[in-house]
Amino acid sequence: MINIDNINKAKKRLNGIIRPTPMAFAPILSKNLNANIYLKKENLQLTGSFKLRGAYNKIATLSEDERSKGVVAASAGNHAQGVAYSAQHFNCDATIIMPEATPLTKVSGVASYDAEVILHGANYDEAYRYALNYTEKYNKSFVHPFADDDVINGQGTIALEIFEEIDDIDIIVVPIGGGGLISGIATAAKHLKPNIKIIGVVASGAKAMKNSFELKTPIDSVSVRTIADGIAVRDTTPKMLDYVLDLVDEIVEVEDKEIASAILFLLEQHKLVVEGAGAVGTAALMHNKISNLDGKTIVLPLSGGNIDVTMLAQIIEKGLVKSARKMNLIVTLIDKPGSLKNLTNTFENLNANIVQIDYDRNSLSLDFGDANVTISLETKGFEHQTSIRNELKNSGFRFKEL
Q: Model-level pTM?
């Protein structure tokens, strides 16, 4: 069962294994919301996420005989690495079932801990079903990513560390996928401070737990789609819903574009690489999803930092455009000597730096004698971009923004 005694036992097991992650004050968020906001940096944990805590605690509680037969897990990445790392520590065979579309970096990360990786299924739920059958067929122990009390007790050690540094906390804002992290944190936190408020955050593209919480009955999603792959859980486990109903005060949701802006904010302002799931709490505060924060002390666990670099590059690119630090244009020119030079001179006079340019005179959409210049500019904000638009119009250039 999950309780403070078992969470304390888990903490002892984890001593010397995990890294007690740092807490940091978030000055910009705190100023903007008139609150005292702290970040619990689980993205700096060994294996890059909090999942190591629960996985290790589960495998540590297995008998020698159970460990000798090996363990199995289903995961899109973070739980997989936690199980693989822990199994390696105990010299225990680990088989990890991952969806076929799992990024290579996550597959390689799991394999680096000597675990066997089997790619199966289009999503986590298909991988999970296969893993259960595999476990039964080969008589191994299954390490569930969230619906296991020993796993949950391990995750609850985060709250113990939080209270060791700050004891006067009003709110903890926690990501929710299957519900294991928030159940563990809430159990410990509410034992240490019964009137603390626990708020969960789901992604809009994976909100089965929020829907279930509001209707007080398990509701499964038809599908999930979100950049927060660490909380992209399609179905609600009844056992986990019971825990969430008992322990959680409120659940809010954030959209992918809000998650992306939070990832970029944490990268730029705090020099932290945080994955989508780890950034949802920050996104909820940045986009005013939670009310009555004035003067409150709030802790945000940044649950993981294992973001795919391709996704990070997309988020940075879109963030630069959204914040008017980058401008993408197609300018139609008369295809004759000097036309391109006139255009680049215009940008030079406006102090807009060209970072990419492509010249196309062959597109079927062009009139004869015309050429399209696709160009990316570094810009200095919304006013700068307005000046560029006005100058292009005044100079007679035909253009559109991308």
A: 0.89
Give the SS3 label for residue 313: helix
The predicted pLDDT at position 106 comes to 79
DSSP per residue, 228-265: -GGG---S--HHHHHHHHHH-SEEEEE-HHHHHHHHHH
- Edge-to-edge order in the sheet of strand 141-142: 116-119, 94-98, 71-74, 141-142
- Residue 177 is encoded by which pair of tokens? 């996928």
Q: Quick one: angle between helices 4-14 and 51-61, nearest 10?
A: 90
DSSP 175-198: E-SSSHHHHHHHHHHHHH-TT-EE
Provide the 8-state DSSP code for 117: E
Tell me which residue of 346, 355, 357, 359 sits closest to 388, measured CA to CA: 346
pLDDT at 108 over 90: no
Torsion of CA 277, 280, 282, 287, to 10 degrees: 160
Helix (H, G, I), strand (E, B) or coil at 169: coil
Distance CA 251, CA 240 (A): 14
- Joined together, the tokens standing for residue 42 give 């689980």
Do the Cβ atoms of 189 and 317 come closer than 8 Å? no
pLDDT at 123 exceeding the cut of 80 = no
Q: pLDDT tens digit string along 349-372? A: 999 999 999 999 888 888 888 999
Number of alpha helices (DSSP H) and beta strands (DSSP E) in the chain: 16, 14
What gap in Å lies between CA 399 and CA 377, rounded to an integer?
A: 14
Neighbour count for residue 300 (Cβ, 10 Å): 28
What percentage of the chain reaches a pLDDT higher than 90? 86
Kindly report the backbone phi and psi dihedral angles of residue 296, in degrees, each rounded to the nearest multiple of 5, phi listed first: -85, 155
DSSP per-residue codes, 35-52: SEEEEE-GGGSGGGBTHH
